[in-house]
Amino acid sequence: MTEKFTLLLVLLININYICFAQPQQNSKRADSLQVEFLTKELDLTSEESDKLWPVYNNYKNEIRNIRKEDQSDQIVLDEKVLNIRKKYKDDFKAVLGSDERVNKLFVAEKNFMEMLRKELIKRNIKREGT
């Protein structure tokens, strides 16, 4: 009886691990692809890259935290995200040097998210078809 209980407990722990490990790996992979994409789109130098990513990660974490809070009012959520973008605009400009490059960062970020969304849809359709 004890052996069955122990085996069941081990299986439950492993199922939890498997279910929760995959999204974290996918998220880390998406983050690294985003860094690569934005670096290429902005044509960052190594010096700019060293300065930009800590600021960008703080910016991205603030946006993630806002999106986790309350998603019932989309207009309020969009306004909070916009305020975060405004807050970081000067920090990004200090690294990138111009408003044009900051705008290019925001456009490239949007383009990456759209590309990622389309890829996920394509994969889901492919998975459902097999």
Automatic annotation (TrEMBL):
Domain of life: Bacteria
Record's keyword terms, sorted: Signal
Signal peptide extent: 1-21
Protein name from the UniProt record: Sensor of ECF-type sigma factor
